[in-house]
Amino acid sequence: MTSATDGRSLLWPSVRRLLLALTCAGAGLVIAGVFSGADPPSSPAYVTGVSALLALGLYGSASGIPRAAVTDLRRVVLAVTVGVLFKALLIGGVMFAFSPHPASLVLGVAVAQIDPLSVAALLTHSQMSARAKGLLLAWASFDDPITALLTIYLSVFAFGAAAGAPHLETELGPYLLGIAANLLLAAAGWLLWQLIKRLPVGERTRLAIAVAVLIVLGAVAVWQFLMLGMALLGLFYRLDLGAVLDRLVTVTFYLASVALGLLLIDGVLVTAGLVLGLAAFAAQIVVGGLLVAPRGIGVTDRVYLALGQQNGVTAILLALALAPVYPPAIQIVAPAILVINILHILTNAVWDRRTAVPAWLGGIRSRQTTGLAARVVRVLGAGHISEHVGRRLEDALRNERAVLGAATRDDRTAATAQNRHTG
């Protein structure tokens, strides 16, 4: 599907982002091959670097939540609470069935979020309604910090303290103290923000002071690994930096991709990554299409929400953060991210051409006349099922077009009447 404005694919931003990430990961792999023998996850510099990137990513995600995106507040809260937990349980359950290990649930949470930067880029030319766009953007923006924090704190109980990750504690006391420290950082940030807004200085000076204070707060967060505090800061400590913060988060994504490549020198676990990626995408279909999608929403928006799973900077950074305590995390999450984003591109490309989908589904049985595929279709009854689904989908799309057409005519009639009244 192409946009009316420039003729390029509506999915080109997602394709371009994936290709650049693969290029960065490849560069990291080459660097790792040249400087073989190093063990980055065991070094304090690695933990500090990943913590800094994660803090920036979480602050960027939280501060990027537009106020207008939470108009459907009940659905947003449902998505980032019940939806996130249900997705994590679905993904973790599939992974646990594949490989019974405490890491299964942690990995399920690590890829359960939707990347907000990818969503923001996609929605520029999306065919979704304004309501569905706002819901998906708010969902992606809120669940990013939530899944990151759940992953970090679940790791406490799944793995305990490990070499190279001194911030993970096995006792509940230090865990609760950590929560208190995060809240204290957020409270200090809020007080400083209120003070900065009341300073009798010019706007440029005020902005410079606010940036300096934020850098100090971020340094404290990285030093003590107060990621919850950074996410909370992003909700109210908002700086007028234009597109600078978005660019910083984008740079963080590509730097994280390079770091991911550095740790792929020992290869990937293809099967586990494939299972994790398929489970994450299927979980989004269930949660997005059935649980979170509002009642009465059209089939077009419902399917777009169901196919909304994308992973980016947070999933990569969480894999990097898990590497010191669970080294296979990188080897599993990396191919899973690739599977998820490829599925997103392919399925959305098909749904962009949804008017042709019913006919394609209806013709499956007639096209499979010989060979193994035909026998499978006959045995499973897939031909009859696809015909039925195709008819139902065609009826739903036809009804949706009729409703939209009637609404458009009503709007025009109301506008005409208003013009006559004012004239």
In short:
The protein has 423 residues and is mainly α. It has 18 helices and no strands. Helices cover 75% and strands 0% of the residues.
Mean pLDDT: 79
Range of strand content: under 5%
Biggest β-sheet, characterized?
A: none
What's the Cα radius of gyration? Answer: 24 Å
* Shape category: globular
Describe it for me?
By secondary structure, the protein is mainly α. Helix 2 runs parallel beside helix 9 (about 225-235) and helix 6 runs parallel beside helix 13 (about 315-320). Helices cover about 75% and strands about 0% of the residues. The chain has two domains: about 15-350, Na+/H+ antiporter like domain (Na+/H+ antiporter like fold), CATH 1.20.1530; about 355-420. It has helices at about 10-35, 45-65, 75-100, 105-110, 115-125, 130-160, 170-195, 205-225, 225-235, 245-260, 270-290, 300-305, 315-320, 330-350, 355-360, 365, 370-380, 380-420. Residues about 1-5 and about 160-170 have low confidence and may be disordered. The protein is built from 18 helices and no strands.
